[in-house]
Amino acid sequence: MTPQSDEDEVWRQIVASFNEKAEDASADQPWPDRENVAVEAGPEDDDAREPVDEPQDEAEDEPEGSVEQADDEGHYVPPPPPPLPHGDALSRLAWVALFGGPAYLLLAALMTWPMEGWIVFTAVAAFIGGFVTLVVRMGDGPPPDSGWDDGAVI
């Protein structure tokens, strides 16, 4: 037999069993009792459905403080975040210039204030100066405490 004929035979078996229903080994296994849901029967279907017995909750016998602990068990509570850095005066001034220049121009346009040439120039220069200052001060180098071997640095 050639390898091609073995492959053809396997394909024929796959095609022949395509419409057959697969046997599920887990179909006969019931789910755990804790996943049973109680069915509330309405007045019209009292006879049609039987309520499922729910397991008794063990927490009912415990005091309230331990119930809250049981509810919180397994939930991650993150620590409080560190305070935001205040930054130095130059960085704060750069942020004010970055947003203040366009904000003034927008406000002056909405309020129809007269805008002389030097005011517009100052607002645009403040925006550009703030942007350039922040980009130059970004510090895209490695941190000073990283040591001599940074690993893979891109």
From TrEMBL:
Transmembrane parts of this sequence: 93-111, 117-136
Region annotation (Disordered) ranges: 17-87
Domain of life: Bacteria
Annotated source species: Planotetraspora mira
Biased composition (Acidic residues): 42-71
Key words, A-Z: Membrane, Transmembrane, Transmembrane helix
Protein name as it appears in the record: DUF308 domain-containing protein
